[in-house]
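Thread amino acids onto this structure.
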């Protein structure tokens, strides 16, 4: 302290003066540090938020929804167009589904059974990347479906929207073909989201092990009825039957959703009796009347299969195939 005119004053080098000079600098430093922290936090959060935004994937039928969800996990958001219990052969999408399709970032469809989706994509979402499984997977056609007496089933040439380039499209009911489809979907997911390509391929590795184990399990389940006459409702089952050694005698309804002619039904009854089939099968998504008539007339049991799944039926792919295998085993044993 200095004394001037009898008064004591703080000198430039006094502690009080130094404290006064430091206070503004300290406040500025704190403010600058806080602003920097906020900026860093904002910059670091934004990429994470973007990375967490799920890829919007729309699929036609439930089996593909399960496969895509397992490949993508939290990286994808999956919506299914076909409602549970509906048949893809007669489904008509709603206006809201048509509008929502344009917001998808990837569309996965089978081909053949979901021709309505191909038309919808062309009209409302032509620029959205689309995987058509039947165009991307190598398929060896199974034995052609036959009607009574070994004749081709009531002219499938007129079965518009069901065959795909002349090949039966129900490939998802063979888990080895579903695995091939999953590989195609994985490549597309990785192309659209390369930052997470490793995660998609790792999920594919796990799924491959699961599907190969499922294939072995279904083969073991159906081993006791291998070679048994198999009479499903419509031609959804040739890949499944060929994979697991079932003798596909005929399909009861050649045109799904359209009742066969009385002559066809009469010949089907005769064919069921001649083959020694123990049962015929209806399907959850289709009117069972044709199957009921044939079962009653032939004096055999009637059971119900589910080629597509969805609540309240099987909601995942493994459960779907296990349900059908168990139903076939119980009916044909």
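Threaded sequence (333 positions):
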């Amino acid at each position: 302290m200095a004394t001037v005119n009898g008064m004591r004053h703080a000198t430039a080098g006094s502690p009080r003066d130094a404290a006064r000079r430091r206070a503004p600098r300290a406040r500025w430093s704190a403010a600058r540090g806080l602003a920097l922290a906020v900026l860093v936090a904002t910059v670091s959060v934004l990429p994470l938020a973007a990375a967490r935004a799920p890829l919007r994937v729309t699929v036609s039928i439930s089996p593909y929804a399960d496969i895509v969800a397992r490949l993508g996990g939290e990286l994808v958001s999956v919506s299914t167009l076909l409602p549970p219990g509906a048949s893809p052969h007669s489904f008509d999408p709603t206006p809201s589904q048509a509008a929502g399709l344009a917001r998808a970032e990837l569309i996965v469809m089978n081909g053949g059974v979901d021709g309505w989706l191909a038309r919808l994509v062309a009209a409302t979402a032509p620029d959205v990347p689309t995987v058509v499984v039947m165009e991307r997977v190598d398929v060896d056609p199974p034995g052609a479906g036959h009607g009574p007496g070994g004749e081709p089933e009531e002219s499938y040439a007129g079965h518009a929207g069901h065959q795909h380039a002349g090949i039966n499209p129900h490939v998802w009911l063979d888990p080895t073909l579903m695995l091939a489809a999953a590989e195609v979907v994985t490549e597309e997911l990785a192309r659209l989201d390369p930052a997470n390509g490793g995660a998609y391929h790792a999920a594919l590795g796990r799924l491959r092990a699961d599907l190969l184990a499922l294939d072995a399990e279904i083969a073991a389940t159906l081993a006791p009825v291998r070679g048994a006459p198999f009479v499903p409702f419509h031609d959804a089952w040739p890949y499944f039957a060929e994979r697991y050694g079932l003798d596909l005698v005929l399909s009861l309804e050649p045109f799904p959703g359209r009742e066969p002619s009385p002559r066809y039904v009469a010949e089907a009854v005769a064919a069921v009796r001649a083959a020694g089939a123990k049962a015929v099968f209806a399907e959850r998504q289709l009117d069972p009347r044709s199957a009921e008539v044939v079962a009653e007339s032939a004096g055999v049991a009637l059971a119900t299969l589910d080629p597509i799944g969805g609540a309240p039926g099987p909601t995942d792919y493994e459960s779907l195939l296990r349900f059908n295998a168990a139903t076939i085993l119980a009916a044909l044993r």
